Glycosyl hydrolase family 2
Amino acid sequence: MLETYVPRPDFARVNWASLNGTWQFAFDEERNLPEQQWLKKTFPREILVPFAYQCPKSGIDASDMHDTVWYRRIFSLPELMRGKRVWLKFGAVDYHADVWCNGVHLGSHTGGYTPFQFELTELLAETNEIIVKATDRADTAQPRGKQYWKQQPDRCWYVQNTGIWQNVWLEATEGSPINQIKLTPDIDKNTVEAIVTAEEFCPGDELAFSVFYQGKLVKQVTASADWYRTRVLIALQPDDFIDEIHYWTPEHPNLYNMQVRLLRGGAVQDTVDTYFGMRKISIDQGRILLNNAPYYLKMVLDQGYWKETGLTAPDDDALRYDVEIAKACGFNGARKHQKIEDPRYYYWADKLGLLVWGEVPSAYEYCDQEIINISREFQDFMVRDYNHPCLIAWVPLNESWGVRKILNDPCQQHFGESLYHMAKAMDPTRLVSTNDGWENIRTDIASIHDYHMKGRELTEKYTPGALQNPEAVFPGGRRLYAMNVPHRPEESAFMVTEYGGIALATDTGGENWGYGEAEQGADALIERYRDVTTAIMNIPQICGFCYTQLTDVYQEVNGLLDMDHRPKFDCGRIREINDLRIV
């Protein structure tokens, strides 16, 4: 997908090279063939990486389910990387990956949505071979999101997404690498805390930080590396006593750039460019606050699918466009539903100003392996995307998927609450909607999914009295809170995080569907949008909404845009309605 844009703007090195493009490819039809024989086989097909074989853009476009697929890529090392340490990086491979370089097994990675890397330095020759074995079973205990585990898509579950589906690239460092940079801004103290991990730490190492705003150097700090992880507190001085610090909001997405260098004996080992935004999200007395001020969330559900490319965006412009079109419709946020998105989406949300909820793709079978898989994927998600100011909330579970007995099963409730507490342990700066939609457990967002067709029905249902007695509220026929779970009104805020889902009659029929009755034309759809949205806006206890949804997704045709991401009508008409509520 990306040949000229750095894959990770939040963790970028200058010396990098894309390995996207044409790879050799094979389906594993010989399950008993030893791996060493596969390494010598000819792969009969070609595939365009990073697109999964199930989508047309890959060049294969096969709907048959295959547990295992193989990839091969031959490459020569770019001249600028010669004499450096070289790293092979994968954005995401669904689901389990084994990787070889020049016949040597580099290692493996489990998790279909998160990145991994291997060092190649000692293995490189003039011509090099990378082989990837990707295993993606129809296993309901692995995080799948909207990938159906049966052959034919059904309801709101779609095609599978197997193998390499995010960028593959090389990076080079001069010496020992910086492994992680964790940045925590504090707008109340005008500071940013940097925790830098360097796993090859040596006594005497130094870390040099340079902070820029709009190209102007505003702070330089050099600190001795304490150990494998070094914590440095950087104070930011206001430009003047009127504007103070440049805060990040959707309306004014101010970003500070930071360069971090690892020094050993005065020699640069590694240089990483990153950035941060001075942004705070919190809840006070049932209200959501952005930078200590009340802020009403007007969000749209975005599943991140494209007709020709599946879960992979066709190009970087497509990711930027989705942020821009959401803002053009008057939304100030997006709930990335059942998908850990490509890092460049979060970059554009940071740069252009769009709040985002980060949601873990669901598994669907409560068992020990699901607990292990979801916990690992969630941890890796938080580690990768911690620095993005656009991300304001984590969603580890959705609508009790994978925890179908959470209503009254103590074990499943413990699992859900463990995800809440894990998020707060790793990232206390963001909100958590633990089981989004219904049967809430310990949570910051008391979330409601309700697809009533008329605003009057919503107004009558969610009265102040009803919301003060959560046991009386049944969104989607489900209890708002699970059994024996206390409601903490002082610590949480109510939101309608799914509603609407309105389809046009011309789009429905056959397998295609929307929520409720389809509307006969754009005018009727917009009027129904106005009716249900303004009803939610006028419920005093509700702090925001998330409309279903931004685009059509295969048979689910209730998007404001079609599956080619083209608006079905003038986006300004939706914006006009959304603009009726400010704070």
Q: What stands out?
A: The first helix runs from residue 35 to 38.
